[in-house]
Amino acid sequence: MKYKAQWKHRWKSVAAALLLAVSITGCSGVPSTSNVKETPGYTLPQSMIIVATERNRYQQIYTSDLWNVTLNNGMTFQIYLLDQVQTFLQNMKTMSLLAKDQDITLTGSEKDRLRRLSETYYEGLSQDDIAYMGIDLDDVITMYQEYYLANKVVGELTKELNLEVSDSEAKVITIQQLAVSDRDTANQLYEQAAAEGSDFAAIAQEHSEVTPIERQLGRGVEDTTFENAAFNLAAGQISPVIESEGKFYIIKCISDYDEKATAERKTQIYTERKNQVFKQIYNQFQTDNEINFSDDMWETITFSPNDKTTTTNFFELYQKEFH
Q: For this UniProt entry, which residues form the secretion signal (predicted)?
């Protein structure tokens, strides 16, 4: 269902560093020394900061009818969202314990910056928002500090690793493609496309069985045959007919180096590598340090169209401040 997919995309973007429902083990020099069997969770007001943020954002997009939507597993979207928030908070608490285990703390300047951010968030709330969440400024400070610390742990435990990404492996090119199911047809279309003065895009638009015609391409996305054919082209060149995954392709290179897209992909690959390494550390620590939150308070939370709260910017303010 689209709501569920939208949630996963949203949570990935605002909390990727927390590696929801993932892990971390075995980075040498990072032993796990704690063995916590029960850990106090966040208070209801602190938890409600995250609950209200996501509740309001989704209600603004899909209206309050969303809370009665039933997913494929029979769970209402309200219960699903609350379950995801609880998982998020459990993972953030685990990150806090990992920080303590590794003597990673916030500096005075970081605390000052987070206090100012907390004041900005709190001062922007309506009285209805404050009443709905039951929070005070200290609750906001706590949650911003915990979220920042979770991100800091990732950086600190991976900063000595060689995760460099070369321009070659991150390189992104722009191509146009024409694909058909028959080799003879592909050969005929190649003759047309390779003719002087031909309009490759127009021929592809008319005959290609695969869209889009024009696209950006990075390494590791297509199979080796397609990738090699595309990356061996200079701008303006056309490949011979190649076979890839049951189709016959002709590829035209529009740009053999997209500088902006390559820089973005380099950042993406670096982040993926860092998170993959961190997952190993986190998984082991999570296994050795059980987090048990009481479910009692979650049973008291219900969503109503009459709830007087509209705040949605807890994560947005953080992203603006630190990214």
A: 1-28
